Amino acid sequence: MDETSPVRQWRVPASLPAAKLAGAVLLVALGLLFADGDPVRLVVAALAAATLAGWAVRDLVAPVRLTVAPAGLTVIHGFAGRRLLPWSAIEAIAVDRRPRLGLSSETLEIDAGSSLHLFGRYDLGATPEEVAAELRAVRPNTTG
Q: CA 107 → CA 11, 16, 37, 127, distances in Å?
């Protein structure tokens, strides 16, 4: 197997960009419905819709958020770029759990020393705990 060929990828669920785009259309429709001649309301609705649509475009352009390969992890970087983190640069793989509004949220944290990469359930299409377990299983043993 090639050093850079992916072993496993995690991506945004296909339904998520569609839901975001539908939400953007709904925001514009609500803005038009409730503007009552006030351009500020329409502009606020349009800006919120544009933000949501931009977020959906990112999901369509770069749906793969995390890839594991023998050389290391490739993570999303910036809007739609990619960054290879060699295994030697990865200091920790952890799951942060926090209670919020009566619910528990989980975030996968990949600590690469000079950078911290965070992924939620909707970034990965799987629970952060499942992904962390897979990453730990394929991570080469390092002695230090």
A: 15, 18, 43, 9
Identify the residue whose tokens are 């939620």.
Answer: 120
Count CB neighbours of 26 within 10 A. Answer: 13
> By C-alpha distance, which of 57, 56, 90 is closest to 72?
90
pTM beyond 0.90 = no
User: CA 30, CA 24: separation in Å to the nearest integer?
Assistant: 10
Q: How far apart are CA 7 and CA 69, in angstroms?
A: 5
Q: Exposed, middle or buried by CB within 10 Å (0-12, 13-18, 19+), for 95?
A: middle
| C-alpha to C-alpha distance for 122 and 126, rounded to whole angstroms | 7
114-137 residue pLDDT tens: 999 999 999 999 999 999 999 999
Give residue-wise pLDDT tens across range 59-108: 999 999 999 999 999 999 988 899 999 999 999 999 999 988 888 899 99
DSSP character at residue 14: T
